[in-house]
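hey so i finally got around to running the thing on that chain from the lab meeting. sorry it took forever, my laptop kept dying and i had to restart like 3 times. anyway pasting the input first so we r on the same page abt which one it is
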Amino acid sequence: MPLLKLIMPALLAFPAHVLGVNLLASHYTGKIYPLSLVDNSLTVGQAITGAGLLPAWLGLDTIGGAKTVYSVDESWFGSGVLAAFTVGANGSLVQSGRLATSGASVHGTPYANAKFFATVEYDPSTLTTYALPFQAGGKVLQQMKFNMTAPGPHPRQNAPHPHAAHVDPTGKFLLVPDLGADLIRIFSINPDNGQLVACPPGEAAPGDGPRHGAFWAPKSNSTEGMMLYTVNELGNSVTTWSVSYPEGKCLSLERKETLPTYAAGKALAAGSKAAEVQVKGNFVYAANRADQTFGEQQDSFATYAIDSATGSLSFVETTNAHAWFPRTFQINKAGDLVAVGGQTSSNVAIVKRDPVSGKLGELVADVKVATPGREQEEDGLSAVIWIE
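ok and heres what got predicted. didnt touch it at all, straight out
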């Protein structure tokens, strides 16, 4: 396993650039931007560095009551960065770790009560794990290289392309949607040493290209009736999977249904690619990139209602994402606002959400962040998260 080098041994402290910071946005120029939403107005604070050349993903972990933001670097130049930041009461960030990697990571997550961290590398077709906190002289704990016996039906399915790493609600399993192999890879977690053991995967339909996933259950703190919803980038669809936990065995997935990310009788524009999926209450949301359903550079969201008895989905409506190429979005804890990260438009939009009906409403606030991206080049703004 390659030796990891801690690039910055000292802790880096960043002042509170904007009082009351409640959002963070990462950008493919290598910076993280604090944002403050006050009185329906967004303000962008001073850029923060230390997250590598191409920070592709941001995640907030709140285990133990502390707030830690993790950043994953997609740099494809042979080296990358995993960065951790502690969030202060007013939104200030203190960098608590910065670890050199081989790069190309597109997503990551802490697991086993934040003792370990997993990343996925799209083109290298790998899943890689590390110990937390990031420390000087640390090593890669485990790296799995995925293979395929034959290419898939879509031109982009020339090799396995793991796109995300999700911990299941029990904390005992790690799931990896693989866009190239049309699989939801499943791994059991050893909570003591962080080792992952492969389980039988969930098999998506040929050409679906699963990208990300989100869990739902009808009862809190229960696995009974649990479902996984995955967004399929290549198929422009959302798949419902039933989740089961056979005693003493691996988590198991059964594919139930797949619905398009657009209304019946409609079609998305050429080049459209579904991006992200989120669950809030009894509703599922998926983002469409480059469909421009609502006009030039105005892409869309698909909203679905969850049948609380069966977990099946029904299409509700398509709404304006108020962004071009919405790569990420996140719903706040109250469930009344959605933060949208437009990648090519390089904007953060705040959209109203009705917590009861689940419907998305009018634009509340909108702000440009750094420089815009180039059409279909997938540069620009990479991620947006609430830090609450």
